[in-house]
Amino acid sequence: MDTLILIVEDEPDLVASLEYNLQREGYGTRAALTGTRALELVRRDPKPDLVLLDLMLPDMSGKDVCRQIRADAATRDIPVIMVTARTEEVDRIIGLELGADDYVTKPYSIRELMLRVKAVLRRRGAPPDDDATGPRVFGRLRIDEDAHRVWVDDALIELTALEFRLLSMLLARRGRVQTRDVLLEEVWGVRGDSNTRTVDTHVKRLRQKLGAAGSYVETIRGVGYRFTDRP
User: Fold this and answer.
1) Domains observed in the chain
2) Exposed, middle or buried, 200 (CB in 10 Å: 0-12/13-18/19+)?
3) pLDDT recorded at residue 131
């Protein structure tokens, strides 16, 4: 079955352009002109493999659509790329904090958007580390790569697919500093992107979710992040 992408956009001409280019790349598509319709289609089987989500919709904010996707156990792991004309940094940060996997501002090149779609889908389908043999325990943290579950002090922590991948990578490379550029390339699949605020935003959110175990992720000022080598 084709990889299925849900386009949520209120401009019919742009929807037609996106459908044409995505289908040329071999993807199947669905389209919604409103947030309400998007929430209907994202829950319909077969569920989409990725959502391209505009922030400015006629009936509700794309942020609210993203929030509801992430709140539903049946859809929370579906990658979301926000596509919007709003370029303010605060909008980008809010979008990422809501769990968006990427954020593209209009006007954008179709080639760039296709590359970002491929990068997000590649991350989603990446296999676990070869040396992952069941749950790993590190201090108060327990992580099960196969089940994509994380516990802190026996409490199950809800992470997005991207947050889980970020945590897994940091833990696998514990004791070694990972620069923001390395994290962008390895976790986000973005090379040469100078906007490292994306990394900072996700690390901050990951720490908050991990609570007592959040201190395991250390900031190396001016360089990047490191997962502590011992609890």
Assistant:
1) 4-124 (3.40.50.2300), 136-227 (1.10.10.10)
2) middle
3) 45
